[in-house]
Amino acid sequence: MTELPLNFLIEDSLQIAWNYLERAGELEEPEIASKFLIDAIELMIRQGVRSRLLLSNRAITAYQRFKQERQAA
């Protein structure tokens, strides 16, 4: 299996996460959501994760947790 260049990996993972969250009606404040998702994906890539689906799924879960914590505060 050929590994994607990092910029494509980030882009694809972000798009998958964004599409899911948008369809689920969970996106709020697009600038904050975008920054959060990119930061989460880049952190996981630095930790060695290279699966688009794993990156996007973990970013989705992290964003949902982030959103819940913001609403609880």
Walk me through the topology.
Elements: H1 6-23, H2 30-46, H3 52-72
Helix pairs in contact: 1-2, 1-3, 2-3
Please give the share of residues in helix. over 70%
Main beta-sheet annotation: none
Would you identify the regions where 5 or more consecutive residues have pLDDT less than 50?
A: none
Gap between N and C termini: 44 Å
**Morphology:** globular
Structural class: mainly alpha
Number of helices: 3
Strand content: under 5%
Number of strands: 0
Number of domains: 1
Radius of gyration: 12 Å
Secondary-structure element series:
HHH
Overall pLDDT score: 94
Core attributes:
77% helix; single chain; mainly alpha; 73 residues
Report what the structure shows.
The chain is mainly alpha-helical and 73 residues long. The chain has one domain (6-72). It has three helices and no strands. It has helices at 6-23, 30-46, 52-72. The termini are far apart. The mean pLDDT is 94.
Q: What would a concise description of this structure say?
A:
The protein has helices at residues 6-23, 30-46, 52-72. The chain is an all-alpha fold. Helix 1 (6-23) packs across helix 2, helix 1 crosses helix 3 (52-72) and helix 2 packs across helix 3.
